[in-house]
From TrEMBL, chains A, C:
Record organism: Caldichromatium japonicum
Pfam families for this protein: GDC-P
Cited function: The glycine cleavage system catalyzes the degradation of glycine. The P protein binds the alpha-amino group of glycine through its pyridoxal phosphate cofactor; CO(2) is released and the remaining methylamine moiety is then transferred to the lipoamide cofactor of the H protein.
PANTHER family cross-referenced by the UniProt entry: GLYCINE CLEAVAGE SYSTEM P-PROTEIN (PTHR42806), GLYCINE DEHYDROGENASE (DECARBOXYLATING) (PTHR42806:SF1)
UniProt-recorded name of the protein: Probable glycine dehydrogenase (decarboxylating) subunit 1
From TrEMBL, chains B, D:
Enzyme nomenclature, EC number: 1.4.4.2
Protein name: Probable glycine dehydrogenase (decarboxylating) subunit 2
Record PTM N6-(pyridoxal phosphate)lysine, positions in chain: K264
Alphabetical keyword list: Oxidoreductase, Pyridoxal phosphate
Gene3D superfamilies: 6.20.440.10, Aspartate Aminotransferase, domain 1, Type I PLP-dependent aspartate aminotransferase-like (Major domain)
Reactions the enzyme catalyzes: N(6)-[(R)-lipoyl]-L-lysyl-[glycine-cleavage complex H protein] + glycine + H(+) = N(6)-[(R)-S(8)-aminomethyldihydrolipoyl]-L-lysyl-[glycine-cleavage complex H protein] + CO2
Organism: Caldichromatium japonicum
Assembly and oligomerization: The glycine cleavage system is composed of four proteins: P, T, L and H. In this organism, the P 'protein' is a heterodimer of two subunits.
GO CC field: cytosol; glycine cleavage complex
Molecular function terms from GO: glycine binding; glycine dehydrogenase (decarboxylating) activity; pyridoxal phosphate binding
Family: Belongs to the GcvP family. C-terminal subunit subfamily.
InterPro entries hit by this protein: Aminotrans_V_dom, GcvPB, GDC-P_C, GDC_P, PyrdxlP-dep_Trfase, PyrdxlP-dep_Trfase_major, PyrdxlP-dep_Trfase_small
Protein purpose: The glycine cleavage system catalyzes the degradation of glycine. The P protein binds the alpha-amino group of glycine through its pyridoxal phosphate cofactor; CO(2) is released and the remaining methylamine moiety is then transferred to the lipoamide cofactor of the H protein.
Originating gene: gcvPB
Length: 455, 490, 455, 490
């Protein structure tokens, strides 16, 4: 019996202690007409050997592609240490650290993570994860609406130059609470979200302004001006940031005169494999004054009976298991293990290592954009300064081009045509520190050939 | 010691970053960071030693019995981890085309089918990243269903008072008002109270069965009938699915919507807080509202991912990509390892273990909260008699259990029962382990009688003594600050 | 500086404490003319990312072949648990357990392993590994010569039906001590080593007789008669056995009237990946009376100052670090981590699981032999009963046939032609529990086609 | 508790064996086993919990400072493990054809080249599975060399009295007689005694440099000259190579043969006793005798494995296949991660750490065995003064160090120095760790003075107290026996 340790003797002894003659009797409070005869439509058990063979065969079906896509999920080097340690049973198979004394490992890791994120964002506090970057942004919107005591507005400005999937998720999760998202256009020339466009949204007050740095197109926004505009209009400034980029970019806590109020984003670039989309982890940081509105778990440093330092979940009164319907969020299970990986990852890289990664990604993407733009008809969509992604317009339908690239083993970029028809045909490309000059040259060569055949 | 405190300026783990840094990118000065963030500067060995050491400070399934009620802490098969990390899966970009991901898609499609079979529902979405997100998806579907029928007045969700806190929190997030339904003295929902709460504002009810009181809600069919008659829908909180897996199905009980915690019932690891996965299943009339994405098998046997254009009525997306795929793969492997018979055996042995443990503790003189009821896969002990007799609280006993090498059961939940422990042994623990736990409980009660300071000051043998949670909340210390940055942000 | 944690401040402080001004000064006792200027002919450092890419590329060069070879290294299912636990830092990065109190993990594992091997072989004691099966056999020969007090003979009988590489290793390691290996032929008909052949070696006394069960051809020997013959001729009986086979076969301790004196073999089938030939582990067991002649580490159960059970290296007076030139062997570093894997592997399988594996291997090889023997010209070399390998004679040159199979992605067997020209053209094939009926059918089909083209 | 003691008849981890057992194979009755071997019957969770728990009882590099002299316990980079376990390498059958294994072969060939570069030798064989097997290969080559010249009378190997025990043991295994050479009071070999030992029976000498006394043998050139003049060969024991890596090479010192412990100098893990790898390098005149296999790069850039027909004078094979390939791959990855400069830096920082630790301990009042000598990568402390003053032995202090969270240094080796600790910090430890160790030593000496029972009864905080080795040897208990099998074999 897979994973069930009971011997026939055990079962007999246990039933005798309970005082019933068969296990089935233990289900006698279930109305008899509801009892199942047996499960159907489920295959028979396989041995580990057979499952291994099955999964290896299926994994082999999924062809590895030379990856030039970012668009919210980035292929970075993950040190071997990261998952060899994060995968240790004591981290991997522990529960949420409710019993603090028996969970000092996980709790200290989470406190260290919070500290690292506070340092990266230059904000005061961080939580211990949300599901992913998109749901974190949605939670940030909900939090901002709760936390903003200057206005009763439930309107939030959201840039069009923000990940389309994120915008969808934010809508799913905030609309039921009557929050209205007002889309702010980007400047066709620069790809930036102009401060003027905020004003043109035509509202006097709003609960929050989302500022995305870099934005979905990889373009750097004028974060100081956007933040100041938000504060001038009683709105909180929500920063949506890439943690790798923060090694080089001005941190949200220093944006504008007063700094962003909340920063959130996707922690995937910090040691999490692409894994077809998850598990990743959303992070969220904020100023001290808003900490009681933060959703999710928060770890605090405290002392034990002997005065020794220890760690515990804190501010639990915000959470669903205490506050129930009035909680800051319904989140319970989060992405703890991914933060363990992120913490180890950040410890290994340090600020200087993170800077090298960021700068290398920028350089590789710049090289990629240069090489591709040298192909006739390919050119950058925008003039604004970029981080490690670039939107390029194409002289042929992007879907067909991407399909042809896949046939060559290349994942050539994110097709902008569907979400941004005004840019079509166009791709969003990315080259992280993993892409070599040879691979970039290969991409350019193949794209060139494909486009030539389209002419 | 924190990793930050081990740091020394200039120390590195240089193999982990590109060896040659390129020129700094041409970022305009005013967008650039002016000073480096203060992150640890440590060697690779220091990182390994630090985090290996921290890991040893955790209790976990791999090291201890973990009878945490309502959490289903069972063995997480190691093969699930290995196989979910195969390069074809783990290196796949979420935006890679689906025709290059048929292997992954086939696993997810089959997982959907398996979840249909065990829940008795007609359609499944794997999108929710955790149980609470599954709950939210569930109530959003209730909302979408009523709205689609133009039925905009249904603003109330009924929730029994014994429910998990996530239930009312999810209902609130979905914009509903919560109406609490009391529990009767026998542990079942107070049906009269329920009936009197029903009306034109009733959108639905959120129930878990077996309930958090560790008993099976016997009047479930009557409840379903009443709710449906009132025009409401029934949502099943899958947190306790392990107690009925293969024995009875939410779909057959009359539920319209169900979520499943794969990190409980399907043994994916809890990881010190996650990631989990909370797929939702629905009866056919709710299928159009399922969250995206969904995997479909086309007539040609190929798999494809459904999007907004296929499912315009969907409540939408809950995360940027397809949810916690790696967790779903682990659950799939688990389901294949157990197969039909194995999945059908889970609840039997989970319930056997719980009943045995309850019977032994009861025989040893402990007080069950619902002694006249059959125990499901978990049960509640109330330590009120011990608290009264010895002045020792349930929390003291829980902490003392840690010294005996067992993780503590869930304490003070459900809130209805004073000084309670909610105990869930799961099916993967042996009789020996349960016997050890009983002996520990007996020994601790003896200590409480003879030397109450021992449990009151527990734990004694852990890396720290009892931690001061009040101090933590009053003197908020949520992030380490370097001396130099204290001035800036302190 | 890779893996060196010293900061410039550290270095300066350390030099000041030492009282020198530069690290180079610390080498001032080395004659100046010997000092190197720098290393040459070694490439520059790579980052982990670059090494990862390099090694992945090289690993991809090494094409996976559908494996029908055993011949001393067997492809078995290795439970995922095995290396996830054996790879934990506390096992992986510990030294030999000289400080017993700080090594109870490793020591208990080794004691458990010794116990399991004693149970499998039905002998009294086991050591905690030698390098591999071949060197273990060589050590067993040396041990037998030392331990045999009935004769001064330094002659040892070794079957020709024993792994050719093992015979070479035994020769390398025993010849310097004047030990003479006398090869005993096998019966051309059965593949067994006949008792009569021992007598025909023409010696009255010998130090030891090696008995190989199953033998290199997979054929089962008449171990009782061989053991009794050895004892009748004052020789010790050395069993060379496959640990998986011991699940089904009579254990060495029960061979003949008195049982074999020493049993040894290759532990690789117990949880060790093929890994191109190593690391594996040799095991050795013996009767109580010979335990002081055992080479290698031995763990004993003992008590601590409080009377609690604990484990420690014992009988160290046999070993080189105490006995130096008079030690039972020069072995020091052994294959400890592989035994950790083997112990976990055996604990997971248990006797019943091991039996299932053994029986499945036998059945698969039987099926393979049947399917291949159905091809015209292919037939079993021997009539003796077999375990999980089979020698098959071919109607075409074996080297060419194997090469053609490799081109089809099949590793078709061990070519017997080189070491056993008397059998040529012939292959030694094996199908473990990992080979499916489909794979066996595929092999048969391809072999059939290849042989057809040779006709 | 032993895994055998957790066993219960009929318990299984069934996922791990074929689910359907075929018919028992047709094995003749008299060759069949009559009763099942008594192996553990446990569940998968029990296995995971048992061995995870056992692992936590170990000290290791990943958890503690491990200054074990002569063992070079440095950080084992985790990438080496991951990359050696890539499917292409780890699934490869040793008898797969070499043209399907060019990736592996290229790594091994390049490792040979790297080892040539760091040792200054002309040719390398990676075959030996450990240091002692490398030593044996070395002396077998000495034997083969003399025999090939018809020089059959050279039956003696000279070995300094401070040598590792493996040296005389290996010489004996190769059929040589051992002649011990005394060490002078300054720690160098007594050159006069050496000279007087030379003669027509001299086959060679086995030396390690720096020696086990933690000092560099200054007269190495004179020794080499004398040995060669007498017709002998010089063998270099690579155990201490970490102390000179990149600074001076055995080949340049005049050695004819060298072995390298990859599990020391090249940071492959020690695994609680192995596996290691002990490649041997030789000067050109000894190349024909190298053990097999060897990897060669052909003119076309392809790699091939040399066999007996290529190298008829080879001393032969030492293991069935190519040695500990997985260990060799780890060493190769390590060498590539460090590269030329990194390998050249190893000894500098190993020696810096040892000199710093020695200087601090000396300043704290501890006694160095060779205070007038420069410390190499390791050094000897003699605790004779403390033993005399406080009645506390070096072993007591070693055991007490365990309580302070440091692995003990090597004790009572080399045998020449009474009450000694041989301390090797390695280059991967930080100054902080060394300072911690010094503080611990000072604290323990204070304890020895004020409360000698504390160190004498140490350790106090480990899973067991001081173990009785005499009891272990007198009451041999080498294998657990089930009650039922006691009768049969007990």
């Amino acid at each position: 019996m897979s994973f069930i340790p009971h011997t026939p003797e055990d079962i007999a002894e246990m039933l005798a202690v309970i005082g019933v003659s068969a296990i089935d009797t233990l289900f006698d409070e279930i109305p008899a007409d509801l009892r199942l005869k047996g499960l159907e439509n489920i295959p028979e058990a396989l041995s580990e050997l057979e499952v291994t063979r099955l999964m290896q065969a299926r994994a082999r079906l999924d062809r590895p592609l030379l990856n030039f896509v970012g668009a919210g999920a980035y292929e970075h080097h993950i040190p071997a240490v990261v998952w060899q340690i994060a995968g240790r049973g004591e981290f991997y198979s522990a529960y949420t650290p409710y019993q603090a004394e028996a969970s000092q490992g996980t709790l200290q890791v989470l406190y260290e993570f919070q500290s690292m994120m506070a340092a990266l964002t230059a904000l005061d506090a961080a939580n211990a994860s949300l599901y992913d970057g998109a749901s974190a942004l949605a939670e940030a919107v909900l939090m901002a609406v709760r936390a903003n005591r200057q206005t009763h507005s439930r309107q939030v400005l959201i840039p069009r130059a923000l990940h389309p999937a994120y915008r969808r998720v934010v809508r799913t999760l905030t609309a039921p609470q009557g929050i209205e998202l007002i889309e702010v256009p980007f400047a066709r020339q620069t790809g930036q979200t102009p401060v003027a466009a905020l004003a043109e949204a035509g509202i006097d007050e709003c609960a929050a302004v989302i500022i995305n740095q870099p934005n979905f197109f990889g373009v750097l926004e004028e974060v100081d001006a956007l933040t100041d505009w938000a504060h001038a209009h009683k709105a909180l400034a929500i920063a949506l940031v890439n943690p790798i980029a923060l090694a080089l970019l001005k941190p949200p806590g220093e944006w504008g005169a007063k700094g962003a109020d909340i920063a959130c984003g996707e922690a995937q670039p910090l040691g999490m494999p692409l894994s077809a989309g998850g598990p990743y982890a959303g992070f969220m940081c904020c100023k001290r004054e808003h900490v009681r509105q933060l959703p999710g778990r928060i770890v605090g440093r405290t002392i034990d009976r002997d005065g020794r330092t220890g760690f515990t979940l804190t501010l639990q009164a915000r959470e669903q298991h205490i506050r129930r319907g009035k909680a800051t969020s319904n989140i319970c299970t989060n992405q703890g293990l991914m933060l363990t990986a992120a913490t180890i990852h950040l410890a290994l890289l340090g600020a200087e290592g993170l800077e090298r990664v960021a700068a290398t990604c920028c350089a590789h993407t710049r090289l990629l954009a240069e090489r591709l733009s040298a192909i006739p008809g390919v050119k950058p969509c925008f003039s604004g300064p970029c981080f490690h992604e670039r939107a390029l317009s194409l002289p042929a339908p992007s879907a067909a081009v991407l399909k042809a690239l896949v046939a060559e083993g290349i994942l050539g970029g994110f097709d902008l045509a569907q979400d941004y028809p005004e840019l079509a045909p166009a791709l969003l490309v990315c080259a992280t520190e993993l892409r070599t000059a040879d691979e970039i040259a290969l991409y350019a060569e193949r794209l060139s050939a494909i486009l030539a055949s389209h002419r | 010691m924190l990793i930050q405190e081990r740091s020394r300026p200039g120390r590195r783990a240089p193999a982990q970053a590109p060896l040659c840094a390129p020129e700094p990118p041409p970022i305009p000065e005013h967008l650039r960071r002016s000073s480096r963030p203060v992150l640890p500067e440590v060697s690779e060995l220091e990182v390994v030693r630090h985090y290996t050491g921290l890991s040893q400070k955790n209790f976990s399934i791999d090291t201890q019995f973990y009878p945490l009620g309502s959490c289903t802490m069972k063995y997480n098969p190691r093969a699930c981890h290995t196989l979910a990390m195969l390069p074809g899966f783990v290196d796949r970009h979420p935006l890679a085309p689906e025709d290059q991901g048929q292997g992954l898609s086939s696993c997810l499609y089959e997982l959907q089918e398996i979840l249909k079979a065990v829940t008795g529902m007609d359609a499944i979405s794997l999108a929710p990243a955790a149980g609470a997100q599954g709950e939210l998806a569930g109530v959003l579907m209730i909302r979408a269903y009523h709205h689609a029928r133009g039925d905009l007045e249904r603003t109330e969700i009924l929730i029994p008072d014994a429910a998990h806190g996530t239930n009312p929190a999810s209902a609130a997030m979905a914009g509903f008002e919560v109406r609490e339904i009391p529990t009767g003295p026998d542990g079942d929902v107070d049906l009269a109270a329920l009936r009197s709460a029903l009306g034109p504002k009733t959108a639905g009810i959120m129930l878990t069965n077996p309930s958090t009181l560790g008993v099976f809600e016997r009047k479930i069919q009557a409840i379903a009938e009443a709710i449906h008659a009132a025009g409401g829908l029934l949502y099943y909180d899958g947190a306790n699915l392990n107690g009925i897996l293969g024995q009875v199905r939410p779909g057959d009980m009359g539920f319209d919507i169900v979520h499943v915690n794969l990190h409980k019932t399907f043994a994916t690891p809890h990881g010190g807080g996650g990631p989990g996965a909370g797929p939702v299943g629905v009866a056919a009339h709710l299928a159009p509202y399922l969250p995206l994405p969904l995997v479909e098998r086309a007539a040609d046997g190929r798999y494809r991912w459904l999007t907004e254009s296929d499912r315009p009525q969907s409540i939408g997306r809950l995360t940027a990509f397809g949810g916690n795929i790696g967790v779903l793969l682990r659950a799939y492997v688990y389901a294949r390892l157990l197969g039909r018979e194995g999945l059908g055996r889970v609840a039997k042995f989970a319930v056997l273990n719980a009943n045995y443990l309850a019977a032994r503790l009861r025989a040893a003189g402990f007080t069950l909260a619902y002694p006249e009821r059959r125990v499901s896969h978990e049960f509640i002990l109330t330590l009120k008699p011990e608290a009264k007799a010895f002045g020792v609280s349930a929390m003291d006993i829980a902490k003392r259990l840690l010294d005996y090498g067992h993780h503590a059961p869930t304490t003070y939940f459900p809130l209805l029962v004073p000084e309670c422990l909610l105990i869930e042994p799961t099916e993967t623990e042996s009789k020996q382990t349960l016997d050890d736990f009983v002996e520990a409980m007996i020994a601790i009660r003896r200590e409480a009688e003879q030397d109450p300071e021992l449990p009151k000051n527990a734990p004694h043998h852990l890396p720290v003594r009892r931690l001061d949670e009040v101090h933590a909340a009053r003197h908020l210390d949520l992030a380490w600050r370097s001396k130099s940055s204290e001035g800036d942000h302190g």
